[in-house]
Specification:
Radius of gyration: 54 Å
Number of helices: 10
CATH architecture of the largest domain: 3-Layer(aba) Sandwich
Number of domains: 5
CATH class of the largest domain: Alpha Beta
Distance between the termini: 133 Å
Oligomer: single chain
CATH superfamily of the largest domain: Toll/interleukin-1 receptor homology (TIR) domain
CATH topology of the largest domain: Rossmann fold
Number of strands: 31
Length: 578
């Protein structure tokens, strides 16, 4: 009943005193009673600020005005010099408040042509004996399992007083700062909030004004919510530059993540920079407009909430280019933003360039494969069609293209080598392709020493063709034969001339070959007359037939020709003759 009586009394006094003041200031514009109340206890020094927002009524820097306070209980003006009240700027300061000061006070602001009025209420209550909890307190809530803050309600007076100092209390116990609580001027940081952190907190402000010290305080009834939400995080867009074709449709999502549990009080909106004023305007929500933003889509995940709002353009016009489109996520803890801008899409050379480079790479790979597989055929073809690219062998001091060497010691397989050297090679290389061969026993003069014949023949030949079978070089007699021909031995060991190995039979025990021949075979390989090969359309039809050691394949003969000297037509020029 006491509280209702107080309300009726204050209302009656306000109506009565407003009428009294209206008689003197008929032209004042009345803004009624301010919503905020000032709560105090006896002995404090509360500051009652004029609730009128003067900066919204006129320009204070350019307009002359004065502020007058009235006590609504008597209707009388409060003059400066009152024993318990002081006028400071637009504020009414009670130096040592008592319950007799409780009531409604009107602030009147006058200019040369206007008058404005609004009332504020001061409530003075005693604290109960033995209890430091203030009778009136505001409510604030914090979230569990995260770091959160409480704000001091007296922060609004910081600009009106000098040297404000805040002291925080919890349940009457002062908070000095530790790992749990960190007072920071007008806010109290609470780390790792738990349910038992609920209770009432008090912030007490000591200050000075006009050289006089004062003190006032307010309490907060703190509630802890088990549900919590962290600050929203902007995922998309993040300062992007997007190429788009003129006249095409375009869509861009603004994605905001709010980790935690609870109800996300977040609004996601798109803005665009105006080309004329350079200010940002919110984009229309009307979906019939060319540029609009669609309704926000909210979905829940294990980590929290995902908010998506889509910006849509039915067709991109020239005026959309080079503007900053900004997405803003607004809530009480902050407003993270993300931007993007559109630029016209130029000619796309990446795809054609990629196709060209890919084609060139493919052609290069195919060319390498063809050159590897058909190296012999391509070389012979170039030699035939373009002999002028190669130097002629005339004048190099050589009489023969190749020296034919084969062991003539054993019967059987060595006879096969002799038949191949004396008959097959001359028929093909001399009869068909016009090479000149030196064959020991055919071209040497009768009665000459073998060593002299070998040395002389090798000195007049450009190549050395060494024929061998499975057993022709794999015996002690064959080794003695090779050693007897010192010129042949020197050619093998010293690598004084180009040597071509012709293998007429498969060698199943390569280790029995002479060391010089074995090393040469490992280094450059041997032409294998016994090996059968697949048929190719480029075969020499006249030599086509079943391959044997005495009748090799056309591929074998092409490889022999590939290793034979090139009979070019280009003559070496003496550049010093000019």
């Amino acid at each position: 009943m006491g509280r209702l009586s107080l309300v009726f009394l204050l209302t009656f006094l306000q109506e009565t005193e407003c009428a009294v003041i209206s008689d003197k200031n008929e032209s004042c514009k009345d803004f009624g009673l301010a919503y905020e109340r000032m709560f105090a206890t006896p002995g404090e020094s509360p500051l009652l600020e004029c609730p009128l927002q003067i900066q919204h009524l006129f320009k204070p820097a350019e307009t002359l005005y004065n502020v007058t306070w009235y006590d609504m209980r008597s209707g009388s003006e409060i003059a400066d010099g009152h024993p318990s009240v002081s006028l400071t700027g637009t504020s009414l300061w009670f130096l040592n408040v008592s319950q007799q000061n409780q009531g409604t006070y009107a602030c009147v602001v006058r200019t040369q042509s206007q008058c404005y009025r609004q009332a504020a209420v001061l409530v003075v209550s005693r604290m109960s004996s033995g209890n430091c909890e203030r009778p009136q307190r505001g409510g604030q809530s914090i979230s569990a399992r995260v770091n959160d803050v409480l704000s001091c309600p007296l922060r609004r007076y910081f600009r009106s007083v000098d040297q404000p100092i805040i002291q925080w209390y919890k349940n009457c116990e002062p908070l000095r700062g530790d790992d749990k609580f960190s007072p920071n001027k007008d806010i109290l940081i609470i780390r790792d909030v738990q349910l038992d952190d609920a209770g009432f907190y008090t912030c007490r402000m000591s200050f000075s004004l006009g050289g006089v010290s004062g003190e006032m305080a307010e309490s907060i009834d703190c509630e802890v919510h088990d549900e919590y939400l962290e600050n929203p995080r902007m995922i998309e867009p993040v300062n992007e530059i997007i190429k788009v074709e003129w006249g095409s449709s375009f869509r861009k999502n603004c994605v905001v993540v709010v980790p935690g549990q609870g109800i996300p009080m977040v609004e996601v909106l798109w803005k665009v920079q105006s080309r004329e004023t350079l200010e940002e305007d919110f984009i229309s929500l009307n979906t019939s407009h060319r540029v609009h933003q669609k309704a926000m889509n909210e979905s829940r995940t294990e980590e929290g909430f995902v908010l998506v709002r889509t910006l849509s353009m039915s067709d991109v016009s020239e005026e959309d280019f080079y503007l900053n489109f900004t997405c803003m996520a607004v809530n009480s803890r902050g407003a993270p933003t993300g931007q993007f801008s559109l630029i016209p899409e130029g000619p796309n050379f990446i795809l054609p360039l990629g196709l060209l480079l890919g084609s060139l790479a493919l052609l290069f790979v195919i060319g390498v494969l063809l050159c590897t597989i058909f190296k012999v055929e391509l070389a012979l073809w170039v030699r035939t069609l373009f002999p002028f690219l190669y130097k002629t062998t005339d004048g190099d001091g050589k009489q023969y293209d190749a020296y034919i060497a084969y062991p003539r010691v054993l019967d059987g397989s060595s006879e096969k080598a002799e038949v191949f050297a004396m008959n097959t090679l001359p028929q093909v290389l001399e009869g068909r392709y016009g090479y000149k061969l030196f064959i020991l026993g055919r071209d040497g003069l009768p009665g000459e020493a073998v060593v002299d014949v070998v040395q002389d023949g090798l000195s007049r030949c450009r190549r050395l063709l060494l024929l061998y079978t499975a057993s022709s070089l794999c015996s002690s007699e064959a080794l003695e034969w090779a050693e007897q021909q010192t010129g042949l031995y020197r050619a093998l060991v010293e690598n004084s001339m180009s040597i071509v190995l012709l293998e007429l039979e498969e060698i199943r025990e390569p280790g029995r070959l002479p060391q010089s021949v074995l090393l040469l075979k490992k280094k450059q390989g041997a032409l294998q007359a016994w090996k059968r090969r697949k048929r190719w359309m480029c075969w020499d039809r006249k030599l086509e037939g079943r391959s044997t050691s005495l009748n090799p394949s056309a591929r074998f003969w092409r490889e022999v020709r590939y290793h034979m000297p090139v009979r070019g037509k280009a003559k070496e020029r003496n550049w010093f003759s000019f």
